[in-house]
Amino acid sequence: MMKAQMKGISLMIILLMLVLTVQAAALRGTVTDEATKEPLIGAAVQLSGTNTGTITDVDGNF
What we know:
The chain is an alpha+beta fold. It has one domain. It has one helix at residues 2-23, and strands at 44-46, 53-55. Strands 1-2 form a two-stranded antiparallel sheet. It is rod-shaped and about 70 Å long.
C-alpha cells in the first residue's frame, strides 16, 4: 500500500514539473513598421488561437 502511494505521489510531482516547464516558455520578438523600419510602440501581439498576448515596449520589443 505504501509503495503504491509513493508511486502516485512521484507521478504527480513529475506531472506538475512538466506543466510548470511548459508554462515557462517565452516568445520574444520585435515589431517594426514595414516602410520605415521604426519600432512600433504599443502594438498588440497575440499568440494565434489563444488568449495569450502582450503589447510592445518603446523599442517595439515583446
